[in-house]
Amino acid sequence: MTGFSIEKFDFTASGVTKWGQRDRKHSNWPVVYTISDTDDLYIGETLNGVARLNQHLATEAKHHLERVQVVVDETFNKSACLDLESFLIRLFAGDGKFRVLNRNDGITDSDYFSRERYRETFVDVFDQLRSEGYFTRTIPEIENSDLFKLSPFKALTHDQAIAAEDILEGLFKDIESGIGSTIVVQGNPGTGKTILAIYLMKLLSDIQHHDYEEQVDQDSMFADFFVPGHRELLTGFRIGLVIPQQSLRASIQAVFKRVPGLSPDMVLTPFDVGEATEKFDLLIVDEAHRLNRRSAQAMGTLTKQFGEINDRLFGPNGAQHSQLDWIEHQSAHQLFLIDSDQAVRPADLPRAELDALISVTESKDRFYRLVTQMRVRAEADYVGFVKEMLAGGTPDPQDFGEYDLRFFDDFDEMRREVLRRNEEFGLSRLVAGYAWKWKSRTDKQAYDIEIGESRLQWNRTMTDWVNSKTSVNEVGSIHTIQGYDLNYAGVIIGGDLVLDPISGRTRFERSRYFDARGKANNNMLGIKFSDEDLLEYVRNIYAVLLTRGIRGTYIWIEDETLRERVRKSISLLPTHGT
């Protein structure tokens, strides 16, 4: 392939005219361009650079932009330019130096002739832009960041895209007719439920604020929503994204702060919703299985607040209502993203309530299932393998390709391997179930987990632990890692999950489980939780931990009998080298 060039000039009428006069191809050749000032940047692709840039000059929203950079290559075609445009949008959004002004509906991930060769050129384009100060980090550093992972600028999988289009079609029909609606999206870990939620927040904001003079890519499957009528239906439309988990919520708020059309105050706790005096038009609830039923909360003030919200919303006889009821009461439309197998505490919504919600939406054709695995780079059914393994079974051997799934007898060796992977790829962490007391919570010098020669503490922060400076030398809990990706996860399965030699299945060991709220009875609802009840939550916890790793998962198990069973299961897997 011949080389590319990046041509630079001022974003003015004279600058565009002079550039156009230099080469006839500037008005008849596929190119990719950026327009930027100190803070904002727009990325585009076109077959007619001069005409497209003049269109931007006529757009008031871009009058503050100052510089143009055009990537020109004699080998470029339309497909390559669409791909490069998407590549740069994702990386600029993930880097965070600029606010990306693009809509998110045009991000593509389509194959085409010689794509791998073009992708080599794209990296060279990135490197040149970085050398000129347009990026602050390397590609691996960007791809490991929350700004990248939680960005709305994503190419959707086929099932995500179909769900998004159908959800929008139904939503606009219901808004127009004045009918409320409830929608459910269900998916296993790693199928992109959070990505879909964030994508829809940005897409709805873009439709809501769309300037009809702005060109819309007619090839986008969402182009029909950027037509007269839809924007008007969203006038004054109040949207919120509800995130039950503190850590994930803070990370998404940081992303929303950098995305035009979105803001951190759009990211809500369930309590924010319950306390709201003005109802929402649409609430999108991610990790909806982590909504709470009436129960003792982490702090006494929250327990009191829970009761006060129920009294205000439902009257004196409404004490038993859940946070799911708050969402439904406080909004005209609701979209719940659910994985019933990721409920990890007795306070979480019970499976029966989630199943009832799913059943209702299925009967109204408002239920969608995500199946494409986006996180774990393993072929075959890795999630199913993990669940059967945690139940104590010996799952059928499957070929997980190059996925690095390993069992370790020596914990210190596993820890060293995680540290090596962190040096190589970043985002490699140790995580564990609640089988050790949290001594360091009150004694900062104490160690919580002592195995072999290793002496470790639990996570020192509950907010964005994965990216904290000390996390590589700590052990993360379920509440710091649910909803996040790792490159490699070193999973410690403690004595709270053991294999019963008589039944041949796993059982819960209550004396070795130290999450007080994770095994407390619900006195407010008069519910007592048996060991069998709590076993489901503990299995769910370990299933979540074992599905965090993109490139690989390493396992160490305390219970000797379970250790032998899992070692056997993993030893039967085909190997491809490490």
TrEMBL record:
Record domain GIY-YIG: where: 28-100
An example Pfam family from this entry, by short name, is SLFN-g3_helicase
Gene3D superfamilies the UniProt entry points to: P-loop containing nucleotide triphosphate hydrolases
* Name of protein: DUF2075 domain-containing protein
